[in-house]
Amino acid sequence: MANPRKRRGLAVVASLLALSAAGGLAFLGAEAAADLVEHRSEADVSQAMHDAGHDWVTVQAEGLRVHLEGTAPDEVQRFRAKSLAETVVDRDRVIDRMQVQAREALGVPEFSIELLRNEQGISIVGLVPASLGRAEMVAALRRDLTEGEVSDLVETADYPSPEGWDEAFAFGIKATEMVDRAKVSIEPGLVTLRAITESAAQKAELEAALERARPATVKLAAEISAPRPVITPFTLRFVKDEKGARFDACSAETEASRDQILREGAVAGVSGPGLCRLGLGSPSVEWVDAATASIRAVAELGAGSVTISDTEIALFAPSSVAGSVFDAAVGHLEGELPEAFVLTADHEKQPETPSGPVEFLAIQDAAGVHLRGRIGGEQMRAVVETMAEARLGPVDNALRVDETLPPGWTTRAIAALEALEGLESGNVTVTPDMIRLTGISGNQAASDMAATQLSRRLGAGAHYELSIQYDRSLDPQLALPSGVECVDRLNAVMHESEIGFEPSKSVIAGDPEPALNRISEIMGECHEYRIELGGHTDSQGSDELNAELSRTRAQAVWAAIRAHGVNVTNMTAHGYGETRPVAENDTEEGREANRRIEFTLLSEAPVISERPAPAEKVTGMTQAVTAATAEAAEKPADGAQAGPAAPETIALIAALTRPALAVVLPEKLEALDRGAIPPEDLPELILLGPPDVEAAIAEKPAE
Fold this sequence. Notes:
eight-stranded mixed beta sheet
């Protein structure tokens, strides 16, 4: 039997051996776990640095700690790398041993100066060499000002002037003195100028003067704009006759539309470079389509003319054009014209014999009056032409002399012109049996007045046919606002209850409802005018950012007005950024004034979106009219609109042979028509007028 003591010793030894083995295994397990955490942390942080582009960081793990080493480009990058590591492992485990790359020593500062000139004076900001004579600069600029002050906000640095600075500075100051409104930036060897001139001619003169003054060592970057004039009415006149094809007048709103019109003119026979004036005021975006279609119509005729005044088109073909060719050309033109345009076509008829059709025709439009048909003699041709010029404006006289006309023909022609005067536009045709008058007027009593005028001149028994449309936009009694008044009212609303925006955004702030209500009320009478809604900013921020912000703000207001139920067919939105300041940008008040929404009138003539309703045709016969009934006829009936008063003098006609002053009354006109008064007895001056005026002047002795 073994010794008990010995057995206890063996048990102790076995226990010690077991404990040692267990401790060794635990140590080996802990060491393996620590190595796993260390390698895993290093791998995870290294991958994160690589994904973030921080390849300059070296990651090394020691136990649970992660060491970051390397040279960061700047302090910001070092901070970002450290923050990134702390998102992968605990913050306490990150050891920052990174360095920051040393900054290069500062060199010579970049000298530049900016001059802003407007009606309030000149503001100067920038950094210039200390050697610059600032007092002399300010004094020179102040001498050039007629009003306003020079604000000197320039800072200086005690460094020598860089190469090209002195020449650029002298030229920049001189350029500032040449303009009234401009932004001039000066850098070594470079002057940048942005200016606004009053006209295209002034722009060309300024560009030439700047080029002459520019030193050879200085570059000039000039952006000079000239506002285009407003053309009203927007007119085009194209003629093709024995002299060739030509433009007597031409208007276009863009370079592209001008080039398209001139190309069509060249195809129609215009030789050499054509001239077409650029300006605002086109009544329709489809103006160029109407213009080119009209030119093609004249080319198809082979001879004739077309006159466009806003949306009114008058096509004329001489008698040499065959009727079938005329009908085809008119048909083609009617098919090509945009919907807003109205065509009047006239074909001069060629009588086969003196006993053929007899007529006198007068067409009134914005360009004046066109006389066609026959007249009794050269003297009466001069009488009628001067009469028409005094009443209706410039005359295009193509009357033919026909000595076989019936008695009283000239009197009927004069009566027709007098009746035509009361219309805004129209035409009148005289035949031996009928006087036909058609047109548009802003007077609801125009038909009654025309009938009275015919009766006054012709007496009883003359047949007439009247078809006169009433256009409320032409009615002076309605007192509809002009385009200028419309824009003034809109800008007053923006000034009194301006629509605001969130800072640096195009989101409308606050409640715009009150302002939108007032704008809606104004636009009810003004929607037929072409109006621009312009957005403007101050000079803080880049040019590109300001231009985009002003554009989106203008569009936001335009969209709000449209959503409010306002007709915005003729309203456009445009952003001008900081290019049109109304105040200095160096004060908060000035910047606030420059941050604005502003309305601008683009065309003084309204764009007629709805044509007047067709007139009811009125036929009748003239009656004998006394002075009392004539006066009563000119007074408006209940609810009717009064027409314009007839002028006291219808015409002063310079005519023929003797230095005498006389009055030719209607009965003497009849005598002239019959040939009872020899042509040599026709006085030098003939005065035609209403009977009461004629009677008063008849008492004056001839000189």
